């Protein structure tokens, strides 16, 4: 039987953002009021921070799918480009702003996570130019050769995603970001994912993977991890609490949502502001071992008020996710079942049967809501 524990303390009910994509209206106004068109054509910039191997590419695929189109590298360009362009979004990888290539880092004895290995000035100039609607010639860091390749031309998209190790480390770059996301993968899970990928796909040994993680850890703790306190949304991935000593098979995933965000309303379970534990397994949700436990409640995160939505465990039948979705509010979905539809569309992606896929989808919908609010607000104020 489904079980529910709820502590009351409800806040205001759900609000919905109006959908106002860049439209023909803005184009018509172009000839009469250049100010309006400039604002409506502005690029919205999203920052996604995480360590290497923490699911950025998987998350990007889920997010860009919400906006439509198939992400592709720039046509006819460098086959080792890190850029992905689709209908509305362009994703650039901040590795392209390494100031030291692989040899340079080895000579200077710094890791790729050290700020000394990044060109933050160029990162700022190019992200600022794209945000103003201007094209840039961006360098390419070639992960195959470890060298910096000749630049590629990047046109300003509607939504620019800057993903990598340090999107909000530099205060000037951070100011350019309209929405900040951090993927916080605990050491145990990061290790399990790296082992699975680097042993199977890249032929690395268990020992070399361990050494690489250990050698990166001090700089990760010093320069990458602290960015999470500034994110608007954080997806935290932890070992399950449902199975003792599990080695990364089941996940406990927490969606940490800042209160008072200018651009989104936190998603809640059943009753906004309450503290709720819910075991949805039963007649409407098939759960084999170890089942699913959900949690929702207020919390503080680095001294800031947040709402946390949590899912521990995994579901068996993706289509039954509609049962969980129907108990969530403020999801930023445009129609009933949109989350389940997205999850089914991306069912082959890693994390599709647990909280990583579910929360990545919700964050993708929040980015869409933020984009639409920014476009709408700027049309009004221009
Ligand atoms: N939600 C998930 N559940 C299980 N495994 C996952 C999940 N997300 C990612 N992985 C695993 O972790 C590996 C790294 O994922 P991904 O390539 O998306 O990360 P990344 O941050 O883009 O990595 P890099 O920066 O090194 O290219 C993948 O091979 C995938 O198998
Ligand atoms: O942390 C990383 C982000 O992807 C990479 O290790 C960094 O970009 C250096 O790349 P490589 O190891 O291919 O020289």
UniProtKB/TrEMBL annotation:
Gene3D superfamilies named among the record's database cross-references? P-loop containing nucleotide triphosphate hydrolases
An example of a GO molecular function for this protein is: kinase activity
Under catalytic activity, the entry for this protein gives:
D-ribulose 5-phosphate + ATP = D-ribulose 1,5-bisphosphate + ADP + H(+)
Q: In which pathway does it act?
A: Carbohydrate biosynthesis; Calvin cycle
Q: Where is the composition biased (Polar residues)?
A: 1-21
Looking at the record, the residues that make up the Phosphoribulokinase/uridine kinase domain are: 45-243
Q: What class of enzyme is it?
A: transferase
Q: Name residues in a coiled coil.
A: none
Give the enzyme's EC designation: 2.7.1.19
Task: Locate the region Disordered.
Answer: 1-22
Recorded hits in SUPFAM superfamilies, A to Z, give:
P-loop containing nucleoside triphosphate hydrolases
The alphabetized UniProt keywords are: ATP-binding, Calvin cycle, Kinase, Nucleotide-binding, Photosynthesis, Transferase
Q: Which family does it belong to?
A: Belongs to the phosphoribulokinase family.
Name of the protein:
Phosphoribulokinase, chloroplastic
